[in-house]
Amino acid sequence: MNREDFPMLKNNLIYFDSGATSLKPSCVIKEITNYYENYSANSHRGDYDISLKVDKMLDDTRCKVKDFINANSSREIIFTKGTTESMNMIIFGFMKNYLQKDDEVLITKTEHASNVLPWFILEKELGIKVNYIPLIDNKVTIDKVKESITNKTKVISLAWITNTIGDIRPIKEITKLAHDNNILVVIDGAQSVPHIKTDVIDTDIDFLAFSAHKMLGPTGVGILYGKYEYLNQMLPLNYGGGMNSFFESDKTMEFKELPERLEAGTLNLSNILAFSKAIDYLENIGMDKIEKHEKELKKYLINKLKEIDNIEIYNEGTDSGIVLFNIKNIFSEDTSNYLNHYHICVRAGNHCAKMVKDELIIKNTCRISLYLYNTKEEIDKFIEIMKGNKEIFKVIL
Amino acid sequence: MDSNLRREIIIDNYQNPVNRKRIDNKDFIHVSTRSDSCIDNIDLYVKINNDIIEDLYFDGEACAITTSATSIMIKKIIGKNIQEVKELMNNYYNMIDEKEYDEEKLGELLAYSEIYLQPNRKKCAMFPFETLKKAIKEYENKM
Question: Distance between CA A181 and CA A151 in Å, rounded?
Answer without folding.
Answer: 8
